[in-house]
Amino acid sequence: MDPEGSAEPRAALDGVSRRRLLTTVGAAGAGGLALGAAGGAAAHAAAAGDAPDPLSAVGSGTVAFHGEHQAGITTPMHSKGHLIAFDLAPGAGRKEAAALMRRWSALAARLMAGRPAEGDDTGVALDAGPSSLTLTFGFGRTFFSRTGLAARRPAGLDPLPAFSADQLDARRSNGDLWVQIGADDGLVAFHALRAIQRAAGNTAGVRWQMNGFNRSPGATARPMTTRNLMGQVDGTNNPRPSDPDFAQRIFVPSGGEPAWLAGGSYAVVRRIRMLLDDWEALSLTKQEQIIGRRKADGTPLTGGTETTALALDELGADGKPVIPANAHARISAPEQSGGAAMLRRPFSYHDGIGADGTPDAGLLFICWQADPLRGFVPVQRKLDRGDALSPFVRHETSGLFAVPGGAREGEYVGQRLLES
Fold it and tell me: According to its UniProt record, which reaction does this protein catalyse (predicted)?
């Protein structure tokens, strides 16, 4: 989201360019790692329809800004995404942070509705519909001390434990504020990114920024769980909104602590580099043994379909488990971690080829849970102790953010914290 135009040009944008698309094209319809075995956030939501979205309907998709929860958590996975973290400027405190969240919320509401931002719009998204754009805002641990709100910092923001395989770059980890941007059009997503950055003004500066992508809507003949850059079906074991305990696992309940976080969630963000040259040198059989699933369709090695439960006790003719003891699917299965569950909603990334000729590519892992100590941490601890996939991935950055519930009409995100 880029900066957006003055009153007269904005009226033209609202009334002709973007709205015209919605009426002409949009009439068709608007309406741990955990990679191969369990990655991908709202993959099931994206694959729930009976037919793929017509390509002509992609631009017309809209997601509501206001609601009980922020958009971008259970929203179907986007084809384009940006993650950006900010640190408050020296001298900026609670008052300045509140003004920033008010600006950002108003901006997000406009852009998600397919309208330009107020002020000097760059026109990057000119002629495009909203393309299911979402913006999601979170607060890091350091945000609370810098705004004088340390007493209101939730226990869920206690630092994540160290994991033996971590090779974290502190400069690209954490941050006071975090914004997730997703859309089904690259220009719409970039427009949002620029608009958010510019709206930060002198209140906050960029700490780090990352770009991601997924399969585009309509790219397959029928809705399917997406794949990651290892070629693995990625998202099979995600919790589903239809599960009876989905809300209690993913969202902070009303009446819980802290009260300002009711309807919110916690996001763990990890940049996980995939050592693709090493992975691609393996035979198909070896890759499948490491993951515990068939590469072609995500079916467990024990048979069935993609959604068939893993038969973890099944033995082969050699007397060994069909799904190896250190297979990623086995170790990341909820039943192996005391029922720990998190909603994975990642993006793939590719940041070029290094001087050594290897691709800097992998997964921008994002998972959502009501309590990271009961969601991400137990699963990652299990993976850290013996996941067969570990030699082929490298955790390079990490962040943990408290994501407030959705804003009501007339309210901005985080208002219940910043003005109470």
Answer: heme b + 2 H(+) = protoporphyrin IX + Fe(2+)
